[in-house]
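Journal club prep — side note

Before the paper discussion, L.F. wants everyone to see what a predicted structure for a comparable chain looks like in token form. Sequence:
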Amino acid sequence: MTGQRDKVSYAAAGVDIGAAGRALELIKKHAHSTLRPEVLGDLGFFGGLFELKGYEEPVLVSSADGVGTKLKIAATLDKHDTIGIDLVSHCVNDILTCGAKPLFFLDYIGVGRLFPEQVSDIVKGLAEACREVDCALIGGETAEMPGLYAEGDYDLVGFIVGVVEKGRIIDGRSIRAGDAIIGLPSSGLHTNGYSLVRKIFNIERSALSVFYPDLGCTLGEELLKPHRSYYHQLRSLLPRIKGLAHITGGGLLDNIPRLFPWGLAAHLRKGSWDIPPIFEVIQKQGDIDEQEMYRVFNMGIGMALFCSPGDVDELLAALPEARIIGGVVEGEEPIVIA
């Protein structure tokens, strides 16, 4: 008799269809809690359906993003219930800079091996953040790909669609010299700079468990603080705002100048806002140049607002945490922090 080969199955190749089914059932209960009346159909269909209503000249605003290597912190600590909050808040803030209201959200989770409870924790965070801003978690994809991701590793990406009336789009075109720059505080690193942090601290579970008196918590607890969403704080104030800069990758130095018409620059005043202790800890531990800190991290400012001088008092009264951090000037150098 010729040699007989063992039968090969998908499970033997590392893909567990049964686990995918269990994960979907766990995910559904979280996603259902976010659905709005405009959502047609149910999870599990081949596409998500959303009926747009109530707008005269609707402009759809979309964005896609991830949370970077903050995922490695979550994986090391085996804590996955806040990483979804990070993702949704990041995406909501991105479209908020255009004046958009979030409508629906989709996620992509790629894993080396599918653990249904882990995926459920991730989606629990996604759903919590979606409910906070009345955004429907309308669908997504969970892909088990052994060989591409190591067991225990995963990637998380989000896709958001929002809407704004055409006449209410915020694009920074009306910004002028003399306008004020107001900063809203971050909750820490948000979702940027983690690759540098991991290099500095050579992060393992033991390093993440170290308590830092200046932080009032362990390093791991500090690094997993969720990314703040500014939607509820700002939605009623958008008519008073000329421009919004979400301070993410590239820090203050790269994000604030993205809004300016040609020939304008930002002058930010050091000491005009509180820099959270985590940034001092990072800078000291890594012996990092100050310019590099401002290019990598948000340095305590999660969102920057641009407004006319006449609107400053009203905005500050409505935003108790906000601070005037600088102003718009004429100049060729995009940004100066001094």
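L.F.'s comment for the group: The radius of gyration is 22 Å. Keep this in mind when we get to the figures.
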